[in-house]
Amino acid sequence: MSITGRPLPTPQPELNPETAPFWEAADQGKLLLRRCLACQVVIWYPRSICPDCHSTDTEWFEASGRGVVYSCTTVRRGVGEFAEASPFNLSYIELAEGPRILSNVIDADPESIEIGQSVEVVFASTGNGTALPRFRPAASLSQGATDE
Amino acid sequence: MSIYGRAYIAGAYEHPGRHLPDKSIAQVHAEVALGAVADAGLTLDDVDAYFCAAETPGFGAISMAEYMGLKLRYTDTTESGGSSPLMHVGHAAAAIAMGKARVALITLGGKPRTAPQRPKFYAPENTFEEPFGLWAQAPAYALAARRHMHEFGTTSAQLAEIKVAASIHAQHNPNALLQKPVTIEEVLESPMVSDPLHRLDCCVVTDGGGALIVVAPEVARELPRHSIKILGHGESPKHTDNGRIDLTYSGAVWSGPRAFEEAGVTPADIDYASIYDSFTITVLQQIEDLGFFEKGKGGQFVSDGALVAPYGVLPFNTDGGGLCNNHPSNRGGVTKVIEAVRQLRGEAQPAVQVPDCEIALANGTGGSLGTRMGSATLILGRES
């Protein structure tokens, strides 16, 4: 949710045969990334060719869903369906697997989000068999230890 | 092989309008084309090459060639957002150097203030950005500003100094949209658009446009006006690089050195700089990336008045730039070249004319500092 308490919109992403598995897996609670089997690099955004070594021998794998905030902003004037949800957070999340991906940190006051903060993925369903990977502040380490 | 000295900017024209509800976009392109050929002492009949970008109405360069009645042997519709016209100058110079053209016309125009913008083009990355609310430009630039602050201690007050300097220049430009000088406090107290960028960290939204004429040396010699020698050109796309985006620098880290090498000059030789100013942070990153100031130190220098004409270390955007004067069609590239030409001809507003301005730089970043951009650098010289 944004600071206003209104949930962020969950627009249906544009699907094509190359990237539909990413959005469909998200609706099953999985964050998929693509990996190059030739050079082992993790690819972002998902595509069939490796932009590092140009091999087309690439495959999906399930990511941890953990990351840290690389940069963030509180958008005060969203456009279109995001106007109603403003202010909201927009961030680059550096995933544990390496790539920096654009998303939103939710379930927190947007102004409280900081660079370097640990976050974990949550999935916002579009209701159409797809979901958007968003992030929330990670449960603290001490809390994690208690849970164990 | 180099374009050094093998082509000249013979004409430059900025549309005086900032609010043009009664004109079509094609009409704006034609008006600036006529203004530029007249400035050069030529006519549209002399034009044999035409360069324009994706904001131009129609089918590449063909529709406007038809509209204006151009007879062409060379066209180029390189699209790199606001930096397109700077690339077009380099490409026109290359075409002229290869004997493919003699008189090249470059136009930019649009009406974001009074007409709906074109829908975004399809791109493979869109679906990984738009569903998260990345529609407008400010949030992406805000991400870059926040990261620059995090790594280098840059402050909002330092960014505000860039707007203040632009506004000091704009007060002398009777066509500028915003002509009133502003203070750091006014910038910081203007509404937050996307943290840490305030409304006054953003450029203006204006209708209008501009055009340039690039000619072969033998054409320039015959013209009554003072032509500007093209010394160097560099360009480079910068993109998210397979998930490794670094928000602290622009594509000028690559386009700049290429232009300086071709021109055979260094940042210390530049008397005046037109620096793309979609937002204040855009300026700060470019003046570091172009080598005027050490990376991360730009904020300190702008606070010392480095950008203020005519006596700052690096007088910039003496027309008031995109931050105050004009950002036609949401693209500030052509006005960057036009003001550099004015400075080299000694025709800037007297209060901001850099004395003995001999070498100028113009830099453009089109697209977004926060995702992907086309960067282009031009170095221009006053022919002695």
Summed up:
The complex is a heterodimer of chains A (148) and B (384). Chain A has 148 residues and is mainly β.
Q: Which descriptors would you attach to this protein?
A:
heterodimer, A: 148 residues, mainly beta, 5-stranded antiparallel beta sheet, 2 helices, 9% helix, disordered C terminus, B: 384 residues, alpha/beta, Peroxisomal Thiolase, Chain A, domain 1
How would you describe the overall organization of this protein?
The complex is a heterodimer of chains A (148) and B (384). Chain A has 148 residues and is mostly beta strands. Chain A has one domain (20-139). Chain A has helices at 20-26, 141-147, and strands at residues 32-36, 42-43, 58-62, 66-75, 88-95, 100-103, 118-125, 131-137. In chain A, strands 6-5-4-7-8 form a five-stranded antiparallel β-sheet. A three-stranded antiparallel β-sheet of chain A has the order 2-1-3. The radius of gyration of chain A is 16 Å and the shape is globular. Chain B has helices at residues 25-40, 62-68, 84-97, 138-152, 156-170, 184-189, 217-222, 252-263, 280-289, 298-303, 321-325, 333-345; strands spanning 8-14, 49-51, 74-76, 103-110, 192-194, 197-198, 208-215, 228-238, 272-275, 359-367, 373-382. Chain B is globular. Chain B is 33% helix and 18% strand. The two termini of chain B are 23 Å apart. With 384 residues, chain B is of the alpha/beta class. The model of chain B has no long low-confidence stretch (mean pLDDT 96). Chain B folds into two domains: 8-115 and 207-227, Peroxisomal Thiolase, Chain A, domain 1, CATH 3.40.47.10; 137-205 and 232-382, Thiolase/Chalcone synthase (Peroxisomal Thiolase, Chain A, domain 1, 3-Layer(aba) Sandwich), CATH 3.40.47. The interface between A and B is large, with 45 and 36 residues.
Category from helices, strands and their pairing of chain B: alpha/beta
Strand content of chain B: 15-25%
Largest beta-sheet characterization of chain A: 5 strands, antiparallel
Compute the separation of the termini of chain B in Å: 23 Å
Radius of gyration of chain A, in Å, reads: 16 Å
Query: The biggest beta sheet of chain B, please?
Result: 9 strands, mixed
CA distance, first residue to last residue of chain A: 28 Å
Strand runs of chain B, count: 11
Highest CATH level, the class of the largest domain in chain B: Alpha Beta
